[in-house]
Amino acid sequence: MAGTLTSVVAERTKTAHEQAESKPFITGLLNGSANVRCYVSLITALLPVYEELEAQVRSRNDDASIALFDHRRLDRGSRIREDLRGFGQDPDRLVVNSATRRYVDAIRETAASPQRLLAHHYTRYLGDLAGGQAIARNVMTHYDIVPRLLSFYDFSDLGDVVHYRRRYKSLLDLVPWSEAEREDFIDEAQLAFALNAALFDELADQDACTERPAAGGFLVAELAHGPR
User: Fold this and answer.
1) Which of 93, 149, 175, 224 is the most exposed place for a label (fewest CB within 10 A)?
2) What are the pLDDT digits (tens) for 118-151?
3) CB neighbour class for 141 (10 Å; exposed up to 12, middle 13-18, buried from 19)
4) Which pTM was predicted?
5) CATH code for the domain in which residue 102 is found
6) How distant is the alpha carbon of residue 77 from its chain centre?
7) What range does the domain containing 117 cover?
């Protein structure tokens, strides 16, 4: 494999990455043509994904490569749960869509493969630390969502997120995997982007994202526009 792992995976997942981020669900959310319910449907769909990913990482941190990246400050599950409660949702009584179930199953199937599990870790958290920050800024602006309801995208506990991303990539490049194991990582990263794209497609078809809520509808005004 010519080049570092992170440079090669970025190049070989470029098309899948671009296809996922150009899905109408995401572009609508970012350009303000969606609604608050649409954003809530996104974090609802992602909650089981993060909880499965975080459970798998905790259970496998006896592996040296996984232990390098097993940082509790990255965990998003509890933050998403808190955000959902802020939006008036019960995180224990949510309907899981089929795309989310496929995503969760894919993560669960990586349990015996550190490099495949870390591929999901890499695509999720480094995405949150980059494009996820743009999502947070845009939904806050377009839908007037207060910061306290966006703790999902708050990584201030990590300090300088740009520095953290660079360090994460540097460590990943140093993991002494074989060529075959690196290929497994890249293959799984490509699958992760495809699973994201499928999730976005399914969410785009839901009523929450095809209709704007009537005044006084989905959210109580104080929840979406409360004290800043």
Assistant:
1) 93
2) 999 999 999 999 999 999 999 999 999 999 999 9
3) exposed
4) 0.91
5) 1.20.910.10
6) 10
7) 5-210
